[in-house]
Write a structure and sequence with these properties.
Elements (H helix, E strand, L loop, with lengths): L1 E2 L6 E2 L39 E5 L8 H5 L1 H4 L1 H28 L4 H21 L19 E5 L6 H5 L1 H4 L1 H28 L4 H21 L44 H61 L5 H25 L8 H23 L3 H31 L1
Antiparallel strand pairs: 1-2, 3-4
Length: about 425
């Protein structure tokens, strides 16, 4: 029998990775699917954990046609990413409950989330022109990877797990801002790459820093680490002088050693600052634009609902008035009651539709309440007609409260209609 060199767990002879800690067994090349549990038992709750991203800081040579069609070439990977997002919803729920009760994420779940992070890292690196080769579906680390991901498996503080999404809000804002700011830089890199087949070094390193921050935020939100992603935001140091550009051993740079401690050029830090500056107004504009777009969608849906309920209500009232006028003889009272009941049932259905469809924009909710209140007044008048003991009482309600309620209903409908249409 074999034993894990990291945690001592007994393993099958044919097993490549430890089923408990994920460490590679002796003789297995490449990276383990999950890094060793270097701190999971020894470190105190919330101990420091590393999310190490390995990537060449020298832009690789790329085929210009692959740069030109990069988004199209990545389409199959996006389908895989979509499926993984669905699976991650269930896995994260299980991870959250496990971490709340035990203070750590189970090894199998940790390994799965790490693999998803590795896949996302390679997809994002490919789309951001940081790597040259089509990455494929990357799960286990390989010796020729263009981008590597390693995460320490540590214990977590339970209160921090409970409030994880709230604690991630500041980093989430920063990530959104710098990501929006990087779009323009990536477009410049794309144009440059189509022409020259190689990206500017400062922009390559700047976008790489953005990606590293995003991946560390992903790891924090998904309970892989208790460490906020801000450390190393501008790199782990600045080059004292620009080194001569080394030529990689292969055209795509995969043969070079991939650093996990990033000593970047000063121009890369400047690129990060520029992306932040660009991202702030773009983030504000996008938020306002999205809010307006969402409000417009709400108004369109709400307007369709209001029109349908108004038309149905008017038809029901017209049918009632026609029946009320045609009822005669000794059974007129019962005939009027039946007509009022039929109209009430129809109007009650419209009220239920309005109550269930809580999609009115905030600026129209006052008019919506008035509209629903007027509809409720009509329903109350119909109930009184249905329960009235004499034809004279029924006629008095039709000519008095019902007529008044109908006038208010029409007026409130027009106010709500114009409010939603403007």
């Amino acid at each position: 029998m074999a034993y894990c060199p990291n945690c001592g767990t007994q393993q099958a002879e044919s097993q490549r990775y430890c089923g408990v800690c994920g460490a590679a067994q002796p003789g297995v090349a490449g990276f383990a699917p999950m890094p060793a549990l270097s701190q999971s038992e020894a470190a105190p709750p919330g101990g420091a954990a590393r999310v190490l991203i390995g990537l060449s800081l020298e832009p690789p040579r790329q085929s210009r046609w692959s740069v030109l069609f990069r988004a199209i070439l990545a389409i199959p990977l996006f389908f895989v990413a979509w499926g993984l997002e669905i699976a991650m919803l269930f896995v994260l729920i299980a991870a959250w409950f496990a971490a709340m009760f035990t203070g750590r994420v189970p090894d199998g779940i940790q390994r799965f989330i790490t693999n998803v992070l590795r896949f996302y890292a390679n997809l994002a690196g490919y789309m951001s022109l940081l790597v040259a080769r089509w990455p494929g579906i990357v799960w286990d680390g390989r010796s020729d990877d263009q981008l590597t991901v390693e995460v320490d498996h540590v214990r977590l503080r339970r209160w921090a797990v409970f409030f994880r999404l709230l604690l991630a809000i500041p980093a989430g804002f920063v990530s959104e801002i710098v990501s929006i700011g990087s779009y323009l830089v990536i477009f410049v890199m794309w144009c440059w790459g189509v022409v020259t087949g190689r990206e500017p070094r400062s922009l390559h390193q700047g976008v790489a820093l953005v990606l590293r921050f995003q991946l560390r935020l992903f790891a924090y939100v998904c309970l892989l680490t208790p460490t906020q992603p801000f450390e190393g935001f501008f790199g782990d140091g600045v080059e004292l002088e620009a080194p001569a550009r080394p030529e990689p051993t292969t055209a795509d740079g995969s043969g070079a050693t991939l650093p996990t401690r990033w000593i970047v050029a000063k121009s890369a830090k400047i690129a990060m600052v520029v992306m932040l500056i660009i991202g702030i107004p773009l983030f504000a504009w996008q938020s306002t634009h999205n809010a307006r777009l969402f409000s417009r969608i709400q108004s369109t849906i709400a307007l369709d609902l209001v029109n349908s309920t108004y038309d149905a209500s008017v038809v029901a009232i017209n049918q009632f008035e026609s029946s009320f006028a045609s009822c005669a003889g000794p059974t007129k009272g019962n005939c009027d009651s039946d007509a009022a009941n039929a109209a009430y049932v129809s109007l009650e259905r419209q009220s239920a539709l309005l109550s269930a469809g809580s999609i009115f924009p905030s600026g129209s909710r006052t008019n919506e309440r008035h509209y629903q209140s007027a509809l409720a007044s009509i329903e109350r008048a119909l109930v009184v007609i249905e329960d009235a003991n004499t034809v004279a009482a029924q006629t008095g309600v039709v000519e008095g409260p019902l007529a008044t309620a109908m006038t208010a209903f029409n007026s409130d409908y027009l106010s709500l209609y114009h409010g939603l249409s403007s």
